[in-house]
Write a structure and sequence with these properties.
Blueprint: H1 8-23, H2 34-38, E1 75-80, E2 85-91, E3 121-127, E4 130-136, E5 141-145, E6 148-155, E7 158-167, E8 170-179, E9 185-193, H3 203-209, E10 211-216, E11 223-228, E12 235-242, E13 245-251, E14 265-270, E15 273-275, E16 280-290, H4 293-302, E17 307-310, E18 314-316, E19 320-326, E20 335-338, E21 341-343, E22 346-348, E23 351-357, E24 362-370, E25 374-383, H5 386-400, E26 417-418, E27 423-424, H6 444-457, H7 460-477, H8 496-513, H9 517-533, H10 543-552, H11 556-576, H12 589-606, H13 609-625, H14 643-647, H15 663-676, H16 679-691, E28 706-707, E29 711-712, E30 715-716, E31 719-720, E32 723-724, H17 729-737
Parallel strand pairs: 13-29, 18-25
Antiparallel strand pairs: 1-2, 3-4, 3-9, 5-6, 6-7, 7-8, 8-16, 9-14, 9-15, 10-11, 11-12, 12-16, 13-14, 17-19, 19-23, 20-21, 20-24, 22-23, 24-25, 26-27, 26-32, 28-31, 29-30
Helix pairs in contact: 1-8, 1-10, 1-12, 1-15, 1-17, 6-7, 6-8, 6-17, 7-8, 8-9, 9-11, 10-11, 10-12, 11-12, 12-13, 12-15, 15-16, 15-17, 16-17
């Protein structure tokens, strides 16, 4: 029996945007923990109140509950005697027999060899006004005993001693840097290889032997949470117990180095060191297995570290950030600073708290100083307000990113904008991927965002621009038979993703104008997609709202045909389960997000429980992609590491945090929240889409990518790319998730 549609407008937008999450691929967090497993699908018009959410569930336990066996999970390692570095890192009694680090003999990736062994590294020596790169790769001594191993390296007057021992099941690694010379030395830009196995050989292997690596470069309270891509325990963790990690970098990225499917070699950056003659400094960390987010947090605290968090990470002027620094010990003389100004800190049973008002736009860095100079931080962002930031962005697009030259064949199109040149990028210069800078494809997100925005504001200027854009889409991006191209010249890609986006746009335009032709165009575009590309897709036309609109306008036959197409896709997705098909990226968070939205939309449209049940398979996979670090770039943000290259002006590889497609995770959670009546999941969804607002600026400009690591391939990163390209999908997601 079919159930009526709840929040149909919401679910429509939902699926429309879901498509995006998946399409982000490359252009060339839950269950199931307990909630989904225990919650029964609720009829769409009788959403359960938040109180019915399973009481046992917390966000922090969502990923990877401990496996049924009770055997201890000891972290073990193998040492390469030639390098003194770790060549294999494993968790005992884990039937997957996974190596948690990249193979460093060239067998997994031919460019990853023994010089990237775990624990090898480099520093830049500052002396005599010059800076020289120094590496430790060949030991002068390797000792193995019943209590552990010791590898010793010498680089000029610097001796590096690496001691490895076990404390019960945990691996303890201690790095000692000693100045053996007579003069003081300065070591800067230090790196220690931690080549964790984060890459996408294909969904099947990812479910067995790959990890999503979430790094918190939180100085003396730094940690790494490596979640198994299956979402199932055991997982791997690392926490600093002595010394400091200030950042991380990525090496070996490139189109000839695994392209979008290889995150790269991860390298942690200790704080710079000043070593007087005979002086040494130490960095120690503990590597451990854990059963999920709650267990990870407990083990970090048991190690004597701090777990920091804020209730919100992106806040409007005048809003208050409620900060917590959780710890199991009393800190010595703790002091908290907001952008350098001291603020009040309150001692509680579980640590320390503070309430801080946001008084200016831009980064709000809350730095905790304790124990005689140790430190860690929380990073929030101040904005004018969420509504104001979106208004400014919409106005900027209208004023600067629509092609208004009637002599240009792209007249009416929304286009890429170069924030350095202060003008539309005409795609008339060589780039690594012209198709990712053209006037179609992902740029359709601007049209969908503005349609969403118009429904909220009824601004006539927005409607006028949308009607002009709709003419461009139908007459220039599409043939008469609805074949859909990525550019007005119809020489670029006839790409499967284009069809869902354009269909979504047409159904949105019906809501804007009431013109029935847009319903016909939306249906025809979707049917053209299925006729050309078949049904084995993780995305579709947003079926719940589309069929409702078609039926309300006496187009029942079209509604039935469209529903039949989407159900075929949904049923094939259910059959695949975790074994995702490879599209432009072998496996990534977009496939998972899209599958969840597809299932939820079909559940709302049909009331068939099998689609709700399909979500239980996907939720742990999604949660494993999400970070929980106390930084608006990272908190509830899914990992992505390639679209800075494909879509940005700098064509830079490396972790894009946040990437706007991660807002699709917010949509996934919001739909699930609607189905089970969960305030928890709704707030999680809102946190995700709010944090992605950092890619939009107070003057209305935007950036398609923030490259988060300190360096990528040795080049300084930590920047917003100058192109405003496809990021406005994030605003469409934001409006959908927050639609009341």
């Amino acid at each position: 029996m079919k159930t009526a549609l709840p929040q149909t407008i919401f679910t429509f937008n939902a699926l429309l945007l879901s498509c995006l999450a998946f399409f982000s691929g490359h252009s060339p967090n839950l269950i199931a923990a307990e909630p989904a497993a225990s919650a029964q699908p609720t009829p769409a018009l009788a959403l359960a109140p938040a109180a019915t959410q399973p009481a046992t569930f917390e966000r922090s336990t969502a990923v990877g509950q401990q496996a049924p066996n009770t055997q201890p999970h000891k972290v073990s390692y193998q040492l390469n005697p030639q390098t003194g570095a770790i060549s294999r890192l494993a968790i005992e009694n884990d039937g997957r027999k996974m190596n948690w680090m990249l193979e460093t003999d060239g067998s997994q990736y031919h460019w990853v060899k023994k010089n990237y062994g775990w624990g090898l590294g480099f520093f830049h020596l500052v002396a005599g006004g010059k800076t020289r790169l120094q590496e430790w790769t060949s030991p002068v001594e390797v000792q193995t005993s019943s209590t552990g191993t010791k590898s010793v390296y010498t680089v000029g007057d610097v001796k590096i001693t690496v001691e490895r021992t076990h404390d019960k099941n945990d691996l303890i690694e201690k790095y000692v840097f000693t100045n053996t010379g007579k003069n003081s030395l300065q070591l800067v830009d230090i790196g220690i290889n931690t080549p964790l196995n984060d890459n996408y050989p294909g969904a099947a292997l990812c479910m067995l032997a790959r990890t999503n690596v979430h790094i918190w470069d939180g100085e003396n309270a730094a940690y790494v949470n490596a979640l198994h891509m299956s979402g199932k325990a055991p997982h791997l963790g690392l926490v600093v117990t002595d010394g400091s990690i200030k950042s991380y970098e990525i090496k070996e990225r490139g189109n000839d180095r695994g392209s979008s499917n290889f995150r790269g070699v991860i390298i942690l950056n200790p704080e710079n060191m000043q070593l007087n003659a005979g002086e040494n400094k130490t960095l120690t960390w503990r590597v451990f297995s854990h059963a999920g987010q709650t267990d990870f947090r407990a083990k970090v605290l048991n190690a004597g570290s701090i777990v920091a968090r804020s209730d919100k990470y992106v806040l409007g002027l005048g809003e208050t950030a409620n900060l917590t620094f959780e710890t199991q010990r009393e800190l010595q003389n703790p002091q908290l600073y907001q952008n350098g100004e001291k603020i009040a800190l309150t001692k509680t049973d579980g640590g320390y708290t503070a309430a801080a008002k946001i008084n200016k736009t831009g980064d709000a860095r809350f730095e905790l100083v304790y124990d005689g100079g140790k430190k860690t931080h929380i990073l929030c962002l101040g904005i004018s307000s969420e509504d104001e930031l979106i208004r400014k962005r919409a106005n900027f697009i209208l004023a600067h990113q629509q092609q208004n030259d009637p002599k240009d064949r792209r007249y009416g199109a929304f286009m890429v904008y170069d924030n350095e040149e202060n003008k539309i990028f005409l795609n008339d210069k060589p780039t690594v991927s012209p198709a990712d800078r053209d006037e179609g494809a992902e740029r359709i997100g601007m049209g969908i965002f503005l349609a969403q925005y118009y429904l909220k504001t009824k601004d006539p200027k927005v409607k006028e621009a949308l009607i002009k854009y709709a003419r461009f889409v139908r007459n220039k991006l599409q043939d008469k038979n609805y074949r859909t191209w990525s550019d007005a010249a119809k020489k670029s890609r006839n790409r499967v993703y284009n069809y869902s986006w354009v269909s979504w746009f047409y159904f949105s335009m019906f809501r804007v104008t009431g013109d029935r032709q847009f319903l016909l165009d939306g249906f025809a575009t979707s049917e053209a997609m299925y006729k050309q590309f078949g049904h084995d897709l993780y995305f579709s036309t947003p079926i719940a709202i589309a069929t409702k609109l078609l039926r309300e306008n006496q187009m029942n036959d079209l509604a039935d045909r469209l529903l039949a197409h989407v159900k075929k896709s949904g049923d094939l997705c259910l059959k695949h389960g975790e074994k995702f098909l490879s599209f432009e990226v072998n496996y990534d968070r977009g496939q998972v997000q899209s599958a969840i939205v597809l299932y939820m939309d079909l559940y709302f449209a049909t009331g068939e429980k099998k689609y709700f049940d399909g979500v239980a398979v996907q939720l742990p996979l999604l949660e494993a992609f999400l970070g929980a670090q106390p930084n608006y770039h990272l908190n509830d943000i899914t990992l992505s590491h390639w679209d800075g290259y494909w879509f940005g002006k700098r064509a830079a590889w490396g972790d894009v945090l946040p990437h706007h497609w991660c807002a699709g995770a917010g949509l996934s959670y919001a739909l699930y929240a609607k189905a089970i009546g969960s305030e928890f999941y709704q707030k999680k969804a809102e946190n995700i889409v709010r944090n992605v607002l950092c890619t939009f600026f107070e003057d209305g400009r935007a950036s398609c990518a923030y490259i988060y690591p300190y360096k990528v391939n040795g080049v300084k990163a930590q920047f917003y790319d100058p192109y405003a390209n496809d990021q406005d999908w994030a605003l469409a997601y934001y409006l959908m998730v927050n639609e009341k």
